[in-house]
Specification:
Elements (H helix, E strand, L loop, with lengths): L2 E2 L2 E2 H10 L2 H11 L14 H17 L6 H20 L22 H11 L3 H15 L3 H6 L7 E2 L2 E2 L7 H4 L3
Antiparallel strand pairs: 1-2, 3-4
Helix pairs in contact: 3-4, 4-5
Bound molecules: iron/sulfur cluster.
The site of iron/sulfur cluster has 10 residues, from loops.
Length: 175
């Protein structure tokens, strides 16, 4: 079961169902002006911004009629990370194409993001071979060593991400 902000999706859906219909509609209407905007990381709007985006993400994942819900949820989060990092991070750090420093550090990601990455590199034999070799090497390492060793991400090619549009959220935070 997917978990969002610490609660199970079923519990979230049940909590929304218990709300009066007019209140539920009003909440979702109020969310409209927040969804699609960068996260508020400072000031009074933080909680509201996180809640609205979490609700929107839950609605995507709960839409049982829609195809590829996990991919759509990952795409939503990736866009949120892009526009938020554009707003906050670009002004603070000097990331640019050609610098692959962060691609040799420990990168954690989520399953939907891994599915999207796998889809993006499918058919690309050299990248797939690098991923398989990195996976074999990584499996043979003790967990702690995996986290401290500077292992180059197999998606990296000529100091640039070869799956840039599908890179995980954590990579987007560093452009
Ligand atoms: S997925 Fe792309 S941006 Fe992320 S670590 Fe790998 S090469 Fe770097």
């Amino acid at each position: 079961m997917h978990r969002i902000a610490g609660i199970g999706l079923n519990r979230y859906a049940a909590a929304m169902e218990r709300l009066d219909v007019s209140i539920r509609r009003q909440i979702l209407k109020d969310d409209e002006s927040i969804v699609g905007q960068p996260l508020e990381l400072f000031g009074a709007g933080i909680g509201r911004s996180v809640q609205a985006n979490t609700r929107h993400l839950a609605l995507i994942l709960l839409d049982s009629e829609a195809k590829e819900r996990a991919s759509r949820a990952a795409a939503y989060i990736e866009n949120l990370a892009d526009i938020s990092s554009e707003k906050y991070v670009t002004a603070l750090v000097a990331c640019a194409k050609g610098c692959s420093h962060c691609c040799t550090t420990y990168v954690s990601t989520t399953l939907p993001e891994i599915f999207r990455l796998a889809q993006a590199i499918r058919g690309n034999a050299p990248t797939t071979a690098r991923v398989q070799s990195a996976a074999a090497r990584s499996r043979a390492m003790p967990q702690l060593q995996r986290e401290v060793d500077r292992v180059v991400c197999p998606i990296l090619e000529n100091h640039a991400c070869s799956a840039y549009l599908n890179r995980p959220v954590v990579c987007r935070a560093a452009q």
